C-alpha cells in the first residue's frame, strides 16, 4: 500500500497538471469570448463606422434609437415567433415520427435515414434547395398545387411579406426535425419494454401507453430538444440570410441578420453592437431556465 | 403477422411513408434539376430527357476552389478542436470541488451565447493579427469557438471512464499527464470519433464565420460561395443545384458511413 504522503504528493502534481491543461482552453475562451463580449459592450456606447481612428462616445444613444425603431421591434417579434415555432414545430413532428416508428415498423432503418438526412446538410444548401422549391412559377410547390387544380393558391412564397416567414419556417421544419426525431427515437428505445408491457396488460390503449408511460419517461430527451431549439431560435441567421437576406422589405429579418446588415452593410458598428447586446440579454432571459436544469443535473450526477 | 396486428400498423405505416416522401422530395428534385439542361429545368417533376452533366462542370468551375478551401479548413479544425476539447475535458472530469465546477460552467456559457455578440470585435481582432481571409485564421476561430461544446462532450465522456483506472495508474507510478496521453486518450477512440463527426458537420456547414472573416478565393469555404451564387440576380438553378449537392456530399457521406457513432455521439453529448 503506498503511503498517505506519497498519494498526497501525487495528487498535488495532479493539481498542477490540471491547471496547465486548463490554461489552454481558458486562454482561448478569454481571447475569443470574454474579450470580444466586453469590447462589444464598449462599442455599443460609441458611434463608429469601422474605419475612422477614434469611435465617438455617445452613451446610451444607440440603445435609445433602437428602442424607438419599428424595424428593430419587428426583428424582435420575428425572433419570438421563431422561438415559439422551433419549440413546437420540429419538436412535435419529431416526436410524432419517433413514436410511430417505435413499433417494430418494417423498413425502420430506411425511415430513420430519410428523416435524419436533411439535418446533415449545410444551412446554405437548405436555402438553395428551398429557394428552388419555392420558386413562384415553376418551383415544386407551385407545380404540385397546379397539378391538383389548386393553382390559384400558389403564391410568391418568398416575395410576399405576409407569407415569407411561414415559408422560411417550412424549410426550417424540413431541416431540423431530424434532430428532434433522432433524440426522441433513441429515448423511446431506452424505455424498458417491461413498462410498456405492464401497461398493456392492464388494458391501456396505445394512445394511453404513450401519454401515460412513454412520454413522461422521455423528459430528459425533451429537455435536450427544447434547449437546443431555444438556443437555435436566438442564434438564427444562416437560413434567413441565405434565403431572403431579411427581405422583402425587412419582413423576414431577425436580430442576427439585422445586426449583420447594420455592421457589415451600413458600417454602423456601434448601433450593430447595441443590437447584439439586446440579443444577448433576450437570449439570456430565455435560456436561463435551461442552464438551471443543466446545472442541477451535473450536481446530481456528482452527488451520486 | 396476424391481420389484427397488420391493421393496427397500417395507418402509422402510411403516415410514415407520406412523411418520408415529403422529406425526400426536395433532395430528389434537387438531384433531378442538377441533371437537366436549361430548356428542361422548368418541368420540375419530370425526369430529365438526357443526363446533362454540364451543370456540374459549371458548378465545379465556380466553386471548385472553395470546396478545396472547405476541406483545408475543416480537417485541421476538427483535429485541433478535438485535442483542445480533450485537454480541457480531462481535468474537469477528474477535479472535485467548487473550482473545477466554476471553470466548467464558465466555459459552458459559451454554448448558449449568440455569436453576434462577438462578431464585430472578432472581425477586427482577426484582421489586426493578420489572419483575415486566411485558412489558419479559420482554424484558430473554429477551434476557439468549439471549446465550450468539445469541453462539455469530452468531460462527459471522460467522466464515464471508471475513476479506479486513474487511481490505479497513479499508484503504478504514472504521472497525471502520462495517464492522459498514454492511457486515457488512446482508450477514448469511440468518444473522439463521435465528436469528430459532430464537429465536421458544424465546421463544414458554418456560414457566419465564413462570411465575416473571409473574402477571396484564398480562404472562402464552399458555404459562403454557394450563398453568393444563390443570391445573384439571375439564378441558374441547374448549376446551383449541382453546386449544392457537391457541397452537402462530404458530411452526408460521413454520416451514412459512421451512422452509429454519430447517433451515439449526438446523444452522448446531448443526453448526459
What percent of residues of chain B adopt helix (DSSP H or I)?
over 70%
CATH superfamily membership of the largest domain in chain B: MetI-like
Strand residues, percent of chain B: under 5%
**Oligomerization:** heterodimer
The low-pLDDT segments of chain B are none
Name a few traits of the molecule.
heterodimer, A: 304 residues, MetI-like fold, two-stranded antiparallel sheet, 13 helices, 1% strand, flat, B: 272 residues, mainly alpha
Overall description:
- The complex is a heterodimer of chains A (304) and B (272).
- The radius of gyration of chain A is 25 Å and the shape is flat.
- Helix content of chain A is 73%, strand content 1%.
- The longest helix of chain A is centred in the first third of the chain and has 40 residues, at 4-43.
- In chain A, a hairpin with an 8-residue loop joins β1 and β2 (56-57).
- Chain A has one domain (73-303): MetI-like fold.
- In chain A, α3 runs antiparallel to α10 and α8 (193-201) runs antiparallel to α9.
- With 304 residues, chain A is mainly alpha-helical.
- Chain B has helices spanning 3-34, 54-94, 98-108, 116-128, 135-159, 163-171, 176-184, 189-204, 208-213, 222-230, 237-257, 259-271.
- The model of chain B has no long low-confidence stretch (mean pLDDT 86).
- Chain B has two domains: 1-52, no CATH class; 54-271, MetI-like (MetI-like fold, Orthogonal Bundle), CATH 1.10.3720.10.
- Chains A and B meet through α1, α3, α4, α5 and α6 of A and α1, α2, α3, α4 and α5 of B.
Amino acid at each position: 500500500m503506498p503511503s498517505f504522503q506519497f498519494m498526497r504528493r501525487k495528487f498535488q502534481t495532479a493539481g498542477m497538471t490540471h491547471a496547465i491543461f486548463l490554461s489552454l482552453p481558458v486562454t482561448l475562451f478569454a481571447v475569443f469570448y470574454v474579450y470580444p463580449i466586453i469590447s462589444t459592450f464598449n462599442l455599443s456606447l460609441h458611434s463608429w463606422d469601422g474605419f475612422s481612428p477614434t469611435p465617438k462616445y455617445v452613451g446610451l444613444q444607440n440603445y435609445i434609437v433602437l428602442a424607438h425603431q419599428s424595424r428593430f421591434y419587428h426583428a424582435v417579434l420575428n425572433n419570438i415567433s421563431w422561438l415559439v415555432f422551433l419549440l413546437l414545430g420540429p419538436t412535435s413532428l419529431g416526436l410524432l415520427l419517433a413514436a410511430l416508428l417505435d413499433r417494430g415498423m418494417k423498413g425502420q432503418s430506411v425511415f430513420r435515414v430519410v428523416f435524419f438526412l436533411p439535418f446533415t446538410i449545410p444551412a446554405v444548401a437548405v436555402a438553395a434547395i428551398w429557394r428552388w422549391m419555392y420558386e413562384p412559377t415553376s418551383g415544386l410547390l407551385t407545380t404540385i398545387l397546379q397539378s391538383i387544380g389548386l393553382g390559384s393558391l400558389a403564391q410568391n412564397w418568398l416575395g410576399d411579406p405576409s407569407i415569407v416567414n411561414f415559408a422560411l419556417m417550412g424549410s426550417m421544419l424540413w431541416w431540423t426535425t431530424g434532430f428532434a426525431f433522432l433524440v426522441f427515437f433513441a429515448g423511446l428505445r431506452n424505455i424498458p419494454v417491461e413498462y410498456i408491457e405492464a401497461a398493456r396488460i392492464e388494458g391501456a390503449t396505445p394512445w394511453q401507453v404513450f401519454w401515460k408511460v412513454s412520454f413522461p419517461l422521455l423528459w430528459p430527451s425533451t429537455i435536450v430538444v427544447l434547449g437546443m431549439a431555444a438556443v437555435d431560435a436566438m442564434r438564427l441567421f444562416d437560413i434567413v440570410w441565405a434565403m431572403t437576406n431579411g427581405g422583402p422589405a425587412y419582413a423576414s429579418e431577425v436580430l442576427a441578420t439585422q445586426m449583420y446588415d447594420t455592421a457589415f452593410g451600413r458600417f454602423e458598428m456601434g448601433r450593430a453592437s447595441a443590437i447584439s447586446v439586446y440579443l444577448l440579454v433576450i437570449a439570456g432571459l430565455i435560456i436561463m431556465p435551461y442552464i438551471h436544469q443543466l446545472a442541477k443535473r451535473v450536481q446530481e450526477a456528482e452527488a451520486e | 403477422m396476424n391481420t389484427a396486428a397488420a391493421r393496427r400498423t397500417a395507418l402509422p405505416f402510411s403516415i410514415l411513408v407520406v412523411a418520408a416522401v415529403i422529406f425526400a422530395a426536395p433532395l430528389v428534385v434537387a438531384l433531378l434539376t442538377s441533371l437537366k439542361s436549361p430548356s428542361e429545368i422548368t418541368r420540375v417533376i419530370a425526369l430529365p430527357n438526357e443526363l446533362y452533366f454540364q451543370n456540374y462542370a459549371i458548378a465545379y468551375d465556380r466553386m471548385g476552389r472553395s470546396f478545396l478551401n472547405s476541406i483545408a479548413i475543416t480537417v485541421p479544425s476538427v483535429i485541433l478542436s478535438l485535442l483542445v476539447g480533450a485537454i480541457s475535458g480531462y481535468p474537469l472530469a477528474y477535479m472535485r470541488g467548487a473550482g473545477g465546477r466554476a471553470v466548467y460552467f464558465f466555459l459552458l456559457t459559451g454554448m448558449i451565447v449568440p455569436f453576434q455578440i462577438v462578431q464585430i470585435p472578432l472581425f477586427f481582432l482577426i484582421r489586426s493579427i493578420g489572419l483575415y481571409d486566411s485558412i489558419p485564421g479559420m482554424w484558430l476561430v473554429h477551434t476557439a469557438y468549439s471549446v465550450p461544446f468539445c469541453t462539455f462532450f469530452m468531460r462527459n465522456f471522460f467522466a464515464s471512464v471508471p475513476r479506479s483506472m486513474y487511481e490505479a495508474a497513479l499508484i503504478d507510478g504514472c504521472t497525471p499527464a502520462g495517464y492522459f496521453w498514454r492511457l486515457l486518450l488512446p482508450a477514448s477512440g469511440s468518444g473522439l470519433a463521435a465528436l469528430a463527426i459532430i464537429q465536421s458537420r458544424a465546421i463544414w456547414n458554418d456560414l457566419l464565420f465564413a462570411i465575416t472573416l473571409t473574402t477571396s478565393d484564398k480562404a472562402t469555404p464552399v458555404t459562403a460561395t454557394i450563398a453568393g451564387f444563390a443570391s445573384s440576380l439571375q439564378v441558374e438553378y441547374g448549376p446551383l443545384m449541382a453546386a449544392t449537392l457537391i457541397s452537402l456530399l462530404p458530411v452526408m457521406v460521413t454520416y451514412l458511413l459512421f451512422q452509429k457513432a454519430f447517433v451515439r455521439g449526438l446523444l452522448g453529448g446531448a443526453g448526459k
